[in-house]
Design brief:
It comes from Leptothrix cholodnii (strain ATCC 51168 / LMG 8142 / SP-6). Pfam families: IMS (PF00817). With 547 residues, the protein is α+β, with helices and mostly antiparallel strands. The chain folds into four domains: 178 residues, no CATH class; 106 residues, 2-Layer Sandwich (Dna Ligase, domain 1), CATH 3.30.1490; 69 residues, no CATH class; 82 residues, no CATH class. The chain has 17 helices and 21 strands. The strands form five sheets. Strands 14, 15, 16, 17, 18, 19, 20 and 21 form an eight-stranded antiparallel sheet that branches. A four-stranded antiparallel sheet has the order 5-6-1-7, sandwiched between helices. Strand 2 and strand 3 form a beta hairpin. Helix 4 packs across helix 15, helix 15 packs antiparallel against helix 16 and helix 16 packs parallel to helix 17. The longest helix is centred in the middle third of the chain and has 22 residues.
């Protein structure tokens, strides 16, 4: 089999995390309950640290838990929101590996092919930690050479939990020391039902949780193996294979071989959706910008992962705010539109733009749900690393600044000159909003004669043009500025155009030096007897100044 390194992220508090995100800085006692198969008995599935401090434990009757913590937030388990959280986490980690497998309550990633990209295992794990924290979850994680081994090690009791088993030899040694019940809980197909799932929330519960997860179809096999003296996976490996097959334990043997790498273990990888639109229900009413920003951060991270998987960059986003309908008024959703000057898939830049836009937003009512939607995107291939400073990063820094200024000041307040196909200086450019699609800024090093309109000029041109050309006095054929002669430094640049729209110009432009060292851009009119309005004596004009 080809080399592999699997990272397993186990979410022991998935049922509770899926009902968040919780208000920043607030720690309330909270518990999640679920009903049994008949729907008669309600028991506590998981409780947070604040509720546990009051005596609430997993497995208690809901009534007993409420008596211990009457102020606790009581929530019903929502499998749909658990699936949505795992989907969001899988998208958020899309930049680490394209091979991601969702197996609730776990997420598996094959990161072997990404080690060189991120500069080794430690930098990759640090990046993974940042991405996971952005989703407001705290998983248990483990590394192993096979996906099933990584999953077993992530669910192992604390005394046997090994985070890193990079080599296959160490993976086999650690797996063989694990309890037999772990294989029945996490390694067999249909090893547990949703009702039998429990959260391992303490050192003493890990082995018991695994035993409770074993489905009824495998309980008899587990008891049979215990009767044969098998307590760990090494004991199972030593038992005769033919006898185990006759006793109906072939699934256990196959699962052990997959965990040890003796059999292939193909997994169905997660596929990102064709279009990106993620919604998030808030368990509380957000009436302030910081709360909405904190709630939107996981969605932005998931968007960046989706863009990395699709090799695209965002150009237009929409943040849709759904208002709380508990009031008597029915208010339409508020839509916050983000348009980028240059497409990007950097989470930090997108979150900065979102923060700037939210600062100017006035909420019509408290918000109880948000949706982040990608409106427009463009293809963006990967960029090779170079020895010299990255020109793309320098250009990206400029466009990021334009985006931030537009978000803070307004799109109409940040403008730039857009070159036009006209040689007349007063018509060679026009002012446009810096973020418009046809006005993408070009960095000086990226601009070329092919990137600009056909009318490019080798001679220098000033950025500052006067609102109207200023007539200059003349003495013995030499132009005067502020009473002093100008010394012409350049040869004439002749511009003769405008016959097609009735605004004909016939000029010879020069760069001239003034007495104070000022560089001026001047021109001299060229008369033409064929035109009645042609001046009898050519005149000098000051048209611009160099910085």
């Amino acid at each position: 089999m080809p080399p592999a390194l699997w990272l397993c992220l186990n979410l022991p508090t998935l049922a509770l995390d899926a009902l968040g995100p919780w208000p920043p800085g607030v720690s309330l006692p909270a518990l999640v309950w679920q009903a049994d198969a008949g729907g008669r008995t309600r028991t506590v599935l998981i409780a947070n640290a604040a509720a546990q401090a009051l005596g609430v434990q997993a497995g208690q009757r809901l009534g007993s838990a409420q008596a211990l913590a009457p102020q606790a937030l009581v929530l019903a388990r929502d499998p749909a929101r658990e699936a949505a959280l795992l989907e969001r986490l899988a998208l958020g980690l899309g930049s680490l590996s394209p091979q991601r497998v969702i197996e609730p309550p776990d997420l598996l990633l094959d990161i072997h092919a990404s080690l060189r990209l991120f500069g080794g295992l430690r930098p990759l794990l640090r990046r993974a930690d940042r991405l996971v924290r952005a989703q407001a979850v705290q998983p248990r994680w483990s590394l192993a050479s096979t996906p099933l081994a990584a999953r077993l090690l992530a669910h192992a009791p604390p005394a046997q939990r090994q985070r890193r088993c990079v080599q296959l030899r160490s993976t086999r040694r650690r797996v063989l020391a694990l309890p037999l019940a772990l294989l029945g809980a996490w390694g067999l197909p249909c090893g547990a039902t949703d009702t039998e799932r429990r959260a391992a929330d303490g050192p003493a519960d890990a082995a018991g949780v695994a035993a409770r997860r074993v489905a009824a179809a495998h309980i008899a096999t587990l008891e049979m193996l215990h009767a044969l003296g098998a307590r760990c996976l090494a004991d199972l490996q030593r038992l005769p294979r033919a006898g185990l097959r006759r006793r109906g334990a072939q699934d256990w043997v196959d699962a052990l071989d997959r965990a040890l790498g003796d059999q292939p273990d193909p997994r169905r990888c997660h596929e990102p959706p064709e279009a990106f639109a993620l919604a998030l229900e808030l368990p509380w009413r957000a009436d302030a910008v910081p709360a909405i920003e904190a709630a939107a951060a996981p969605l932005v991270q998931a968007l960046c992962g989706w863009l990395a998987l699709r090799w695209r960059a965002a150009q237009g986003l929409s943040l849709i705010l759904r208002h709380d309908y508990s009031s008597r008024r029915s208010l339409p959703d508020q839509v916050l539109r983000l348009d980028l000057a240059t497409p990007s898939r950097e989470a930090r830049h997108l979150q900065t733009l979102l923060r700037e836009h939210l600062q100017h937003l006035v909420l019509a009512a408290p918000v109880d749900a948000i949706t982040l939607q990608l409106d427009t995107s463009l293809p963006e291939a990967g960029r090779p690393t170079t020895l010299w400073p990255d020109a793309h990063q320098q250009a990206q820094a400029h466009t990021n600044l334009v985006d931030r200024l537009q978000a803070r000041l307004g799109a109409a307040q940040v403008r730039r000159l857009l070159p036009q196909a006209d040689a007349r200086p007063e018509k060679a450019d026009r002012w446009v909003n810096a973020g418009t699609a046809d006005a993408k800024p070009l960095a000086p090093h990226a601009a070329s004669r092919d990137a600009l309109p056909a009318l490019t000029h080798a001679l220098p041109r000033p950025t500052w043009l006067l609102p109207a050309p200023l007539p200059l006095a003349e003495h013995d054929g030499q132009p005067l500025h502020q009473g002093r002669p100008l010394r012409i430094l350049s040869r004439a640049e002749r511009i003769e155009t405008g016959w097609h729209d009735g605004a004909l110009v016939r000029r010879d432009y020069h760069v001239a030096l003034g007495q104070a060292g000022t560089l001026c851009w001047i021109y001299r009119e060229r008369g033409n007897p064929a035109f009645d309005d042609s001046p009898a004596q050519p005149r000098w004009f000051l048209h611009g100044l160099f910085g």
